[in-house]
Amino acid sequence: MLKIMITGATGLLGRALVEQFAKEPVTLLACGYSRAGKDTHRLDLTDEGAVNRFIETYKPEVILHCAAERRPDVSERDPEAAKALNLAATRRLAQAAKANGAWLCYISTDYVFDGTSPDYDEEDQAHPLNFYGETKREGELALIEVSREFAVLRLPILYGRVESLDESAVLVMLKQLVNQSPTQQDDWAVRSPTSTLDIANALVKLVARQQQVGDVAGIYHFTGVERMTKYQMLLKMAEILGLSSQHISPQSSPSDLAKRPRDCSLSMARLKSLAIKSEIDFEQGVKYSLSRSGDALAKIGLVFDLK
């Protein structure tokens, strides 16, 4: 039975992958660190010895590397920690994978681009504007340097089933809907909100392709097809929940600590050539996510019944 290791398995994307791959005839090695529980192996990816011992002991055939410092502003404030996880740990994991005959897919980001020339193809020149994007790009290069047979999957802004709204840069905006104080939301940067369930379904297909044909290598893009600013996402979520958004106004210029690109919309040419595409639109995905995130919603006084 195929043995799949998932790093960052306790995170937003990692949990979706665990849930979907659990439906397949595979053995899962779910790895986490700060939130590792009884069904998760506690593994510090910055500990080279621990990583090597884990892979030598359990011998995964496939590694899906989701663990990362994903927050641009946090990366700016603590660059060493971001680099340790996004670059150094990725390089060590790739080396251990190669040494033990495993295939690795590294989860990266649309923030490797500067946002000036969408839609971005897989072979377009990377030019990150912030430190987070730099570390993820360096992680990509380190992975490919270890083995050109490994894969990179770049993703945009994510949402899905959450344990805390802060896990998703999309769903965290629900706090603004509940708090009726006048506030603003970004209406400048164009994003492509993407469901973690959509990504998980795509990765199930991608891993199957790798097992059957063995030709999944290099860089791939996966993205939701709708393009929206965060303000537009917020209006849509307000509509879904039947909440007022009158107290929220559009912000026409960026205000984040880390510089953001204007529009990093991705082309999915390579995945589409493998008959893999996005199948969940924003409204569907948000409704599904909210229906699975009752505890997180309850903390801010929201209840959502999927109709």
Could you explain how this protein is built, in words?
This protein has 307 residues and is of the alpha/beta class. Helices cover 38% and strands 15% of the residues. The chain has helices at residues 12-21, 48-58, 72-77, 79-99, 131-146, 174-178, 196-212, 230-241, 269-272, 282-291, 294-298, and strands at residues 2-7, 26-32, 41-42, 62-65, 103-109, 151-155, 158-159, 183-186, 194-195, 218-221, 248-251. Strands 3-2-1-4-5-6-10 form a 7-stranded parallel sheet, with helices on both faces. α1 crosses α7 and α2 runs parallel beside α4 (79-99). The model has no long low-confidence stretch (mean pLDDT 95).
Dominant shape: globular
The strand order across the widest sheet is 3-2-1-4-5-6-10
How many distinct helices?
A: 11
Distance between the termini: 38 Å
Order of helices and strands: EHEEHEHHEHEEHEEHEHEHHH
Tell me the radius of gyration: 19 Å
Structural class: alpha/beta
Total beta-strand segments: 11
Describe the largest sheet. 7 strands, parallel
Q: What's the overall average pLDDT, rounded?
A: 95
Our estimate of the beta-strand percent is 15-25%
* Poorly predicted runs: none
As a percent range, the share of helical residues equals 25-40%
Blueprint of the fold:
Elements lengths: L1 E6 L4 H10 L4 E7 L8 E2 L5 H11 L3 E4 L6 H6 L1 H21 L3 E7 L21 H16 L4 E5 L2 E2 L14 H5 L4 E4 L7 E2 H17 L5 E4 L8 H12 L6 E4 L17 H4 L9 H10 L2 H5 L9
Parallel strand pairs: 1-2, 1-4, 2-3, 4-5, 5-6, 6-10, 7-9, 8-11
